[in-house]
Design brief:
about 180 residues, mainly alpha, Helicase, Ruva Protein, domain 3, Cyclin A, domain 1, two-stranded antiparallel ribbon, 2 strands, Rab-GAP TBC domain-containing protein
Length: about 180
Amino acid sequence: MSQNGGVGQKALRNILQAYAVYNEQIGYCQSMNFIVGFILMVSGSREKESFWFFCALLHKCNIEGQPVMCGLNGFFTDGFPTLLRYVKVFHALMDLYMPDLHSHLEDLPDLLWINKWFQTCFLYSFPLGLCIRIWDNILADGTKFFFKAALAILKLVEQELLVLDFSEINEYFKSFNSTDSQ
């Protein structure tokens, strides 16, 4: 995918353009490329399968009447209703389980971190190996695993974050995707 104009980028563009036609209500939204690129990678660059898998992710999925995937289309529709609901629930959980850290991060705009984590299904901010583990759990457990993953990551670095100021926290979050962090 990294080669400009290469086969991977063409496949990525084909899927994103096809989805924009397939679902005109959503069309294309920034950050879809991370998800589709990841799906292409793990599927061995199979475009058709990747397209349909992406479509399935964006729509509600039930198994035996129980919701497994809540449908990520609300991460991309106008106003981002599902994304905003997830962020609100996440903040409530964080306040419950890590009140000191929640208070400390209160002034850090969600756009700089948690929105990116959720909207890209963690792919923008974390190393590939961790993302594969997170995705395995999301596919097995459903989208509720977004909360578990985000809380677990923050719990691991809570003490470090509590001593950082606003700009240092922002840089710290950016460093998660460096090649040396796992």
